[in-house]
Design a protein that fits this description.
The structure holds 2 protein chains of 2 kinds.
Chain A lengths: L11 E4 L5 E4 L8 E6 L4 H17 L5 E6 L11 H10 L8 E3 L4 H6 L3 E2 L1 E5 L5 E5 L13 H11 L14 E2 L5
Parallel strand pairs in A: 3-4, 4-5
Antiparallel strand pairs in A: 1-2, 3-7, 6-9, 7-8
Chain B lengths: L4 E5 L6 H14 L7 E5 L3 H7 L6 E4 L2 E2 L15 E2 L5 E2 L4 H18 L1
Parallel strand pairs in B: 1-2
Antiparallel strand pairs in B: 1-3, 3-4, 5-6
Classes of the chains: A alpha/beta, B alpha+beta.
Chain lengths: 178, 112
């Protein structure tokens, strides 16, 4: 079951492709945190990637942290291995103004109840889920510009309840082990 | 004889309804029967291996993939397509569908 709006998000710390680690803490979180379950091989995740990267760039000045997490089973989907993640980031570092984290055990995806790639969660400064769903209404139209995600961030940063707190995530299923 | 058009899909990927709609439109645009599609589900990895299925959806006309899968591995996943405008898509570009159908029609006409 997915985390409900208003629920406290489980803390985690995951390895990133650059050798560091990142995650969500119990306390001292940024003004807003965006968690995007994504992967290397899904066309929906790839189609939305640039829009999410633009959000990371545009909202960095507001202290918003955007974390991308790949939880797919890399044994069955080798393109989602940690090594493949590293290669992807190193091939185009400008496309990654945000960490790309590896959830090898799938514990984080399970804890959040993520179902698709992409599946977007926005957390408020207290670490509560303020938005969950798709980046915007149309993977096919770049002009949508992740406007559902941006709207949620604007509301969280202004201290308002999110006007559209939940939408249907759209994309490839997360590839679970076994 | 009209070309044999197959749409292979895996239910774990949400793209096949859109692919089916695009394919029906392409068939109509090229003067073929939009209902002539053989729709086949690829339910598991064994079936994917038998079909040399490189992702959902896969569209074949007279047994030939409308977009060359190249060295893509067999897998139960959504397939990545590249649109003519450079964008990434979970379904083939409609112009690629129409072009493949016209090629098949021309080939059929030349051989009959």
């Amino acid at each position: 079951m997915s985390l409900r709006i208003g629920a406290h998000a489980p803390p985690f710390d995951l390895p990133a492709t650059d050798g560091t680690s990142a995650g969500v803490a119990l306390e001292s979180n940024p003004p807003a945190t965006v968690i995007v379950f994504t992967c290397n091989h899904c066309p929906y995740a790839l189609a939305w990637h640039d829009r999410i990267a633009a959000v990371a760039t545009d909202y960095a000045e507001h202290g918003v942290e955007v974390l991308n997490i790949n939880s797919n089973d890399a044994d069955r989907y080798p393109r989602d291995s940690f090594e493949a993640m590293v290669r992807r980031v190193e091939a185009d570092p400008d496309a990654w103004p945000m960490p790309y984290l590896h959830d090898e055990t799938q514990d984080v995806a399970e804890a959040y109840g993520a179902t698709t790639t992409p599946d977007v969660f926005v957390l408020d400064p207290e670490g509560r889920v303020a938005y969950r769903g798709a980046p915007d209404s149309d993977w096919e139209d770049p002009h949508e510009d992740a406007d559902w995600l941006r709207g949620a961030l604007d509301d969280v940063l202004a201290g308002r309840p999110v006007g559209l707190p939940e939408t249907e995530p759209v994309g490839c299923s997360i590839k679970w082990r076994g | 004889m009209p070309p044999h058009v197959e749409l292979l899909f895996w239910d774990g990927c949400p793209s096949h309804p859109r692919a089916l709609a695009d394919l029906r439109a392409a068939l109509a645009d090229t003067g073929l029967d939009p209902e002539s599609i053989e729709l086949r589900e690829v339910p598991d990895e064994a079936a994917a291996a038998r079909e040399a299925f490189t992702g959902s959806p896969t569209i074949r006309i007279d047994g030939r993939d409308v977009v060359d899968p190249g060295g893509e591995p067999v897998m139960l996943a959504c397939r990545v397509y590249h649109r003519r405008d450079g964008g990434i898509s979970p379904v083939p570009d409609p112009d690629d569908l129409r072009e493949a159908l016209r090629r098949a029609i021309t080939t059929e006409g030349a051989s009959s």
